[in-house]
Amino acid sequence: MSQKHLKEAFISNLNGTSLLEISLGLSLPPLCLLCRGLLLILYHLRYGKPLSSRKYSLLLDFLVLVSPLLFSCTVLSPIMFFMPTIIAAFCAGIFSKIYSQRKHETRVPFRQIVKDFQKAYLDPEYIPAITVFRVYVNVLTSIGILAVDFPQYPRRYAKAETYGTGVMDLGVGAFIFGNALVCPEVRQKSCVTQPKFSNLARQFFSIWPLIFLGFGRLLSVKSIEYHEHTSEYGVHWNFFFTLAFVRLAASLLLAIFPKNKSWIVAINLAVLYQLILNTTSLKTFILHGSDGRDTRVGFLNANREGLLSLFGYLAIYMASVQAGLWLLKCRNSVKGWIEAAHFLLLTVLVLFVFLHVSQAYADPVSRRMANLSYCVWVVAHCLTFFICFVVTDLALVFTKLLVKGSSVPCCWNVVKPPNTGTKRETEAVPVRTEGKLSHICLISAINKNQLLFFLLANVMTGTVNILIDTIHSKTAFTLCILHLYMFFNCLIMYILHAKNIVLKFW
Questions:
Q1: Sign of torsion, CA 305 307 311 315?
Q2: Which of 86, 244, 309, 470 could join 210 via S-S bond, C-beta 3.0 to 4.6 A?
């Protein structure tokens, strides 16, 4: 068997893992973010100033925000169920140290600190959890696309063949969800009136890089006979095409239907698509082709998974638009965001109940078809992921109140309460800005060039696979390669951010 066929077999016919393991895995990035923030606050407490060295800041961010994820999806995967507890215990130890050292300086009781926290006002113009969510989806995807080719990456985390819930199955849907959170229709202020199809016209111009990248990937994969999982998207289709067409179709739907009713469009799309799957021969066609023997003759047969799954991904995108609109409503207090987190948590519980019903009576989760169960699963887990980041941000806001003057990049700033006598209730005045701190943050660096980061990860993944026999790599070698790969990607983004370069020309 050739190397190409070996690698294709290595990532085929898999069944995924449990919902519980994926949920526990999603808690790791927020815990890493919390750990990084607490370490920066402890540094400020000890030295009376923020960490200003760009070199040490990059090293800290990589070792705390990225490296634990590499270990957890390889050598530490057997103890995945204990990883959140270990990191949470470490965070609790750092917080205890901060609180105990701070108590010597002031005698404000803990109950008073909690009251001050609940009354604190936050910058209503910036929601760091959205930024961090999108960056971490990108980072986790970049890790997964290379790590999956190594034997140390558990097969249960890879994409399931037909039915199942693999970590990488969630990654595809989460990427769509993260894109919709910041789409033009969500960011457009309600008070601004624009022509109905103006966003659709802009999308025609903004998706051409994705189309270009899709054709670039297609030509490169075919020309060098790179291994590919045909049942993932088809013979010619790939994720770049999916993202481009979903964005275009969503803009068309949002031009026709009110954007604040996008959740209704999402439900109708997902349910109608599932009904067609269950009541017609469409499901058989997706899984086995028009002749029932997995034929790939003709464009539709060759790319049936990629083309027909667009309906499911479009439903996820529309649901995310509704979530984005709700999240961007002005909330300028800690209390407001605690209430928002409670509402999101209730929504997630309802979605998981619906997921159970959908899997029992409609169809199990299938990324290959992007069916109803898959759409519900992706939205539920993405909202869970987002809630974890909101809670992390609120925990860091509380800790920053303990140490005056401390700052954490990509975290809420506490602001002065609005003057209701002269200003609108939603307005608030920043107490201070973080200034140059955003320039020494890996999250900000990746956020500035997200598409470039994803493209670089794809190119580097292909390069590593061409140069190295990944299937037979030893553990130490695998860990070195994965760390070098991720560090190189992060370093490029960090350098571009430091020079204030944004490679976006469309």
A1: positive
A2: 244
